[in-house]
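Query structure, 93 tokens:
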């Protein structure tokens, strides 16, 4: 069996930082950071949604919330119209 020679290099702090910065820069410049295509994003969203969400339940919750908001808006419109009538009657007097 042949022993492989090993080399140990001792660097000072500045040289070590410079070498690490060079390695980082070369790694970042050669790495390809490509954004996923729309099809990949859509596949991921559909898979995530089907695995992590109960869509019928979510739909029902949103429907109920929309009905509650609609009733609140109707009450707000009614209160505003009554307020406007009262202010108009006060102004016209």
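Result returned for the query:
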């Amino acid at each position: 069996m042949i022993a492989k020679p090993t080399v140990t290099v001792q660097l000072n702090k500045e040289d070590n930082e410079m070498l690490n910065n060079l390695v980082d820069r070369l790694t970042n410049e050669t790495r390809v950071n490509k954004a996923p295509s729309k099809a990949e994003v859509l596949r991921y969203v559909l898979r995530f949604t089907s695995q992590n969400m109960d869509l019928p339940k979510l739909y029902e919750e949103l429907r109920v919330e929309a009905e509650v908001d609609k009733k609140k808006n109707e009450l707000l419109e009614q209160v505003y119209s009554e307020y406007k009538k009262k202010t108009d009657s006060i102004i016209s007097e």
